[in-house]
Amino acid sequence: MNISITSAVEKKFIKLAKKDPALSKIIDQRLVQFQENPRHPSLRVHKLTGKVKGAWSLSVTEGYRLLFDYIEDGILVVDIGTHEQVY
Fold first, then answer.
1. Model's pTM, two decimal places?
2. Nearest to residue 59, comparing CAs of 75, 40, 72?
3. CB burial class (10 A; 0-12, 13-18, 19+) of residue 46?
4. Quick check: 60 and 80 in contact, CB under 8 A?
5. How far apart, in whole angstroms, are the C-alpha atoms of residue 13 and residue 18?
6. Which of 43, 46, 67, 72 shows its CA 20 to 30 Å from the CA of 82?
């Protein structure tokens, strides 16, 4: 499964990596885990409703979420941030 990210999310990743390298490492681990087993219960992957209807959410940590859309050959990461930031 390919994982693509938008340029806006790439900028957020860079900022997060500078601010919190440990969180950046966790994000990388979660994406690898998702590639290996997209249904792993700890990821809590689910489809969203409301203002982000149609997108999917993956739990990075208890407070951080990664939003994505399924695309033809994988996923496209469209947002990352705290629960309050992305919803």
1. 0.91
2. 40
3. exposed
4. yes
5. 9
6. 72
- Separation of first and last alpha carbons in the chain: 26
* Structure confidence at residue 47 (pLDDT): 97
Task: Please give the domain boundaries of the chain with CATH numbers for all domains.
Answer: 2-86 (3.30.2310.20)
Torsion of CA 19, 84, 35, 14, to 10 degrees: -20
| Interval 46-57: pLDDT, tens | 999 998 999 999
Q: Stretch 8-33: mean pLDDT, rounded?
A: 94
Joined tokens for residue 52 = 């982000």
Question: What pLDDT is recorded for position 87?
Answer: 85
Cα–Cα distance, 72 to 59 (Å, whole number): 22
DSSP state of 72: T
